[in-house]
# Entry
Amino acid sequence: MTEAITLRKAEACDEAAIRDCAKNAFSGYIALIGREPAPMTADFAVQIASGHIHVAVNDNGVLLGYIIFFVQDGHMHLDTVAVLPAAAGRGIGKQMITFCEDETRRLGLDAVHLYTNEKMTANLSIYPRLGYVEVDRRTDEGFSRVFFQKKLT
# Structure
């Protein structure tokens, strides 16, 4: 079931809720990876100030998830998608990814690139279902990552 959400640019007042969302969405991977996943240690204040974070909120303004993306090397880099576990399975993540893809097209870019940790096995099946193609696997910044891209042309 797809939930009605509003996507908007994150504001400084959203930082605590974004950090809480990251903690709740990614803490289950600490034991698998052996340390906190990269999204848990992000500098959200800088990313908010840079305009890279959008939040998904419900009709009551409650943050249900967030997405981080930005232009990098002529394509859109999709950095993080996180949904509160209590809101998972409602299509929020897919709506946020579609928003990123729409922004990519609006900016005249032809591809979205992303990576995920190889231990985040659910992502390894989700992204291909959304049209993303695996292009590489390598250790990057100390993490075993799987790289994907989606051509939008």
Remarks:
- The beta strands are 6-9, 53-57, 63-72, 75-83, 111-117, 133-140, 143-151.
- The chain has a mean pLDDT of 95.
- The longest strand covers residues 63-72.
- The chain has one domain: 6-151.
